[in-house]
Amino acid sequence: MVQVRVHQPVNTDGSINLEAWLDHVVSVDSALDRAALKEACEFALEVEKKGNPAKHSWADGTSSFQAGLEIAEILADLKLDQDSLVAAVIYRSVREGKVTLAEVSQRFGPVVSKLIDGVLRMAAISASLSPRQSLVLGSQAQVENLRKMLVAMVDDVRVALIKLAERTCAIRAVKSADDEKRLRVAREVFDIYAPLAHRLGIGHIKWELEDLSFRYLEPDQYKQIAKLLHERRLDRERFISDVMNQLQNELLATGVKADISGRAKHIYSIWRKMQRKGLEFSQIYDVRAVRVLVPEIRDCYTALGIVHTLWRHIPKEFDDYIANPKENGYRSLHTAVIGPEGKVLEVQIRTHGMHEEAELGVCAHWRYKGTDVKPSSNHYEEKISWLRQVLEWHEELGDIGGLAEQLRVDIEPDRVYVFTPDGHAIDLPKGATPLDFAYRVHTEIGH
Fold this sequence. Notes:
Layout: H1 18-28, H2 34-50, H3 64-77, H4 82-95, H5 101-108, H6 110-128, H7 140-153, H8 157-173, H9 179-199, H10 203-217, H11 219-231, H12 233-253, E1 259-262, H13 267-277, E2 289-294, H14 297-310, E3 312-313, E4 319-320, E5 333-338, E6 344-351, H15 352-360, H16 378-390, E7 415-419, E8 425-429, H17 434-441, H18 443-446
Parallel strand pairs: 2-6
Antiparallel strand pairs: 1-2, 3-5, 4-5, 5-6, 7-8
């Protein structure tokens, strides 16, 4: 299921309780500077009061100030640094023309200003698309050019993460928009930002973006699966509770301390598996699933042995992503067994550290503290190189209509990407002139 909107504490008059919000965010990450965050929030609120009160960031009436807090809250959960959160709070105000980058740089420094500028550049890609263009239904070459363009612009992973959080907030709010905008945002999110979240290893954002975009792109399919999940919820919860108790007792008996929980169900992944394997909903085994978190890697394999002792495993459904991690760094053991009552059950087993990596992805490896990271440092350049490798989309990605085949994007920093008036992205070598662009569009235009 899709996630609910982030909570923002409110006062009795309906305004946001900023002090309570700051307390919450700082409690999520104690490394954050509460005073600096408060200054950014008060600045964004002051700017908003001077602007057009009738103008909103989102279709549901969310203001630019509220939108900034939502984006920042997502980034706080991802453990991003101070500058990223300050940039997030102010970003929508800059995008909507309520404040300039020069003003931001003067007040909050060049790092924050540069982050916002990078996010604005990513936003310009979507804004430059013609309303007739459809990212999901567009040509393969067009999609590849758009993705190349996104990657070429990201010299700082924080830019991609801020934009990812902003698009997450946007699609949460798009329910109130008109049909055309709702579909446009859903297609953009599905084709660009859900794969981006996947490549950055941020599982929970990827699942939310997939489910929300699927909800609008294929509403009938979405509602059907959601209804089936709801109808069988009580029976499924009872089954999972019994499994968790039995497994916990066996693990404790062998001295393994584990945290066991039921795993969230994601509608798009269920639908995709039904389509790919030609299965009915009742045949999808990971509708019933548990996750086991243990202290050490050796405990993962001990727990796996106990699971396979308790219940007969299905050999074709076992994957060892600890010995063979996924390309985005994901590590875990996955197995499926014939559980109690003859029902198939999926079990994921990983360490607490692996789970943090699965939830935070690139953020678990890349923590900025202050502004001491210089573009000239070798350490910084190594991280940029690593990021560009991560951002190569070369896994096979399915889409709503099954039209997107295998995508492999080679990162080419010495390329220039230009949009035609009708929204097509043209790939040119660095140093290309307007005449080169004209010839690429059509020889007659070049002449």
